[in-house]
């Protein structure tokens, strides 16, 4: 009886140990946003494109006129992609779990990232509206840049409908 319990405990410890060893393996991911980070022309020599080590998962998001962002995640995420439509723009978010896997045109993402990105987009659009009304000190240069890109894209979209 004791040998069965001891064997069961040993097997359980072995399984938990192996599982933990697999999920804590650190990987390296690309980290960048916009310009040099674009899908079609990931410019690895550009100063804004960096490699970050010690990641659990890599992330790549693409949000219509806002462009592409690649990042390092501190938590493990299952590989996969999701797409959501927000204000007529398609937002794709993908996770992957191998070294520098977020350089590809297509990687994998979880639903958590997509939802987070949708929330971020709503906040960004809200800050664009507030930024129009009056200048607030917390509105960063990056937000101002994205606001101008959104307005520019909206203007092009609506002027092309009038033609």
From TrEMBL:
InterPro entries: Sleep_regulator. Residues 1-21 form the signal peptide. Keywords: Membrane, Signal, Transmembrane, Transmembrane helix. The chain crosses the membrane at residues 104-126. It comes from the Eukaryota. PANTHER family: ATILLA, ISOFORM B-RELATED-RELATED, PROTEIN QUIVER. This is Uncharacterized protein. It comes from Dreissena polymorpha. The lineage of its organism: Eukaryota, Metazoa, Spiralia, Lophotrochozoa, Mollusca.
């Amino acid at each position: 009886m004791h040998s069965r319990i001891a064997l069961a405990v040993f097997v359980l410890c072995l399984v938990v140990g192996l599982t933990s060893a697999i999920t804590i393996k650190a990987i390296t991911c690309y980290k960048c946003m916009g310009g040099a980070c674009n899908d079609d022309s990931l410019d690895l020599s550009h100063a804004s494109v960096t490699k970050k080590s010690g990641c659990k998962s890599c992330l790549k998001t693409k949000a219509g006129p806002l462009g592409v962002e690649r990042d390092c995640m501190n938590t493990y995420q299952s590989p996969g992609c999701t797409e959501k439509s927000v204000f007529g723009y398609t937002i794709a978010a993908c996770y992957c779990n191998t070294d520098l896997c977020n350089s590809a045109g297509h990687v994998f993402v979880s639903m958590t990232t997509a939802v987070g990105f949708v929330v971020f987009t709503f906040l960004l659009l809200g800050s664009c509206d507030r930024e129009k009304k009056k200048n607030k000190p917390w509105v960063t240069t990056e937000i101002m840049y994205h606001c101008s890109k959104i307005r520019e894209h909206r203007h092009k979209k609506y002027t092309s409908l009038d033609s």
